[in-house]
Amino acid sequence: MEAPVPGVLAALGLLAAGVAGVYAAARGPEPLATWPFLSGARPAEHAMSRYHVRWYAMSLVFLAFDMEMVFMYPWALVVAEVGTMAVVEMFAFLGLLMAGVVYVWREGALRWA
Amino acid sequence: MPLRKGAAALGVILAFPVVLGGLALAAAVLDSRTRGTGWAGPLREAARLLGQRRRRTVAADGLLVTAGVCALLTAATLAGTAVLPLGERPLADLAVGVVWFNAMEVAVWAALWLTGWGANSFYPLVGGYRFLAQGLAYELPHMFALITVAVGAGSLRVPEVVAAQRGLWFAVAMPVAFAVYLLSALAMAFWGPLGGPLGVDVAGGVRAELSGPDLLIFQAGRYALLAVAAAAAVPFFLGGGAGPGLPAWAWTLVKALAVLALLVWAGRRTAGLRMDRFTEASWLVLIPAMLLQLLVTATVAVAAR
Amino acid sequence: MGLSGRLARWAGPRPLLVATPYGTRPRLHAEAEIARRRWHPAAAPAAASLLVVCGLATGELATAVAEVWESMPDPRTRTDLPPDAGPTEVSHALDEVAARLAGGGMGVSGGGAMAGYGGDHGGGMEMPGGIGMAGRGEDRDGLRLEVLHVPLGPVLADWPGGLVVDATVQGDVVQEAAVRVVGADLGADEPFWDEPWHKAQSGERVPRGAAERRGAAERLDGMGRLLAVAGWPAAARAARTLRDRMLMDRPAAGLAAEFARFERRVRGSRALRWMLRGIDAGQDDVLGYALRSLDVVGAALDRMDDDTPLPANRPDPGSTHDRLPALLAGAELAAARLIVAALDPRTEAAGGHG
């Protein structure tokens, strides 16, 4: 790996300069203090509050799968080398996860309207 | 002599962000064109937003909003300029380039949610959560598509992925992965039918309270993201800079623009996809389809050895 | 005009349209004119620089419009289009405000609405902005979660003019909804869509074709809102273009071909069917309402050149207001918007409070 950092840093620097330039060029000393948009009404309460996340169960299944993804990147590098056994093992693992997905689907967690 | 060498190196380094900016502008122009606001629409809007005052809603967390707005453009820049080769080589030829791309692009989740939450306003909040639900639906098929590419190439280094397509482009060798990638590209840039987080039904969603420079940078980040998603399809699926006649960088650009135009055009033709329905299809159709694609690719990779 | 003025003139405005119960005529002209000028309409005041009030904003609607105006960042300007404004009048008004905007707009924002709000107050029990945190309540799934009071309308993009749905929401689920109409207290004008029938009632000879055109245009107007809310702006634009052609006195022949293309596109969209199917809108799901609108327009096209006189009494279109609260309760925000767009309630005086 030949010094990747300067290039990326240069890109980031350019970006930072651009963003700073946009903010500097934009007019107005003080942002306009305002109520949030609510169709022309003032809010009765602050919007920042606990949100009814109805896909909560799904987010857990997602996490399980996402963890598994961490194994897949190194697996992708060695699968050809290790051979059939690597394919069988990984897909047995994925099969287990998919069984979980099918279960979750039957429980209705993939639809929430 | 060393001076000239240094200038050349600087030119190469600058080329990446400049090309990204150009592609983002191209995305904005294509979008504006199909929306009926003309070729000059994005530049006019940028000029207007530069002159517009910033806003701050009651008890907003301004720092979070600014962080979210800037994170979008930063994520696009880091995903786009570091590991995607413009021609032969990327700026940073990481051994885990594919993972880097994936990791940077996931920062969009944080960017949108921070922007949506920070404004202390109902519609941005709904938009932010819409994107999280969208992430749960698109991210796994997206990652499977990237991993299939890595298995096909036997490497996570982007130039090696390109080299592995010398015989056959991955778009042909793994068509399911390519199709899923394109769909997830729209979702990742919350664009077209997957633009729910910015939906007109929630008064613009995440960006509902943004004005002036904040909105300008947010929009730039979004178009940059769409451009990066399209540009990444070139090394991952379309053989990188390979092609007759033109130099590699030119082919890269031509292919990236073609994918971009395809995404914009297809996005205009489809009604919005809501996650309360799409998620089911994503998990029960897209993920199994991707697993089959991965199985085929892995089997071929093992057999070829 | 200096450089920045020329730049502002070139940049053009970003309009936010406010529909009012009796403002259909100026709204149609304004929408068409804005599309012709390639301005990009905004969905919220933050991005907008031009407030276009279509018709008279009275009573509570006027208050809501003032509130929205206060939350628009400068440079900003506003125009109020009278209910009987014709296309040239609308075009002139837009020219005028565009020029005014290029000159810096109207006044500096930020004096009125937030005058009492000085940013974050210094700790203690006082809540920022003088508003409290959300209270909690049972939700439809048996959880106790924060409840927000969110009025949908009257100032909302792709929303019937003057309609207000006072919703209590948890997350993006509407728990309860009450429906009312604001700004319709000046009931002197007839609803724009009923104009041919009104003329017929007052003894004028009106060809049936004129009423068919008007009815078809009303359906297409509703389709425009539905498709926009369904996240398909390109199709919404097509519906609005067709609507405007429908209202011009041109032979139906070219129109029929154009509508056929539009209809094929909408009916053929699998994504649209997938997303609209099964969202209960009362007598049918939202998809059913959408497809029926297409049927109505298609049937009207055949009778557009019908020259027989229109009878004086029109069958009452009926009000859908009463059905809304029950349909919206328990719906997700996106579905709620689709339901309202599908039922497309009339907000002229007949609607009243419901």
From TrEMBL, chain A:
Alphabetized UniProt keyword annotations: Membrane, NAD, Quinone, Transmembrane, Transmembrane helix, Transport
Manganese as UniProt keyword: no
Cellular localization per UniProt: Cell membrane; Membrane
EC category name: translocase
Membrane topology type: Multi-pass membrane protein
Membrane-traversing stretches: 55-79, 86-105
Record GO terms (molecular function): NADH dehydrogenase (ubiquinone) activity; quinone binding
Superkingdom classification of source: Bacteria
The protein, known as: NADH-quinone oxidoreductase subunit
UniProtKB/TrEMBL annotation, chain B:
Family: Belongs to the complex I subunit 1 family.
Protein name: NADH-quinone oxidoreductase subunit H
Location within or outside the cell: Cell membrane; Membrane
PANTHER family in the cross-refs: NADH DEHYDROGENASE SUBUNIT 1, NADH-UBIQUINONE OXIDOREDUCTASE CHAIN 1
GO cellular component, one term: plasma membrane
The organism's taxonomic lineage, starting at the top: Bacteria, Bacillati, Actinomycetota, Actinomycetes, Streptosporangiales
Transmembrane regions listed in the UniProt entry: 63-87, 94-116, 136-156, 168-191, 220-239, 246-266, 281-304
Primary location class: membrane
GO molecular function, one term: NADH dehydrogenase activity
UniProt keywords, alphabetically: Membrane, NAD, Transmembrane, Transmembrane helix
Pfam families: NADHdh (PF00146)
InterPro entries, per database record: NADH_UbQ_OxRdtase_su1/FPO
One GO biological process term: aerobic respiration
Bilayer topology: Multi-pass membrane protein
Automatic annotation (TrEMBL), chain C:
Species annotation: Spongiactinospora gelatinilytica
Protein name as catalogued: Uncharacterized protein
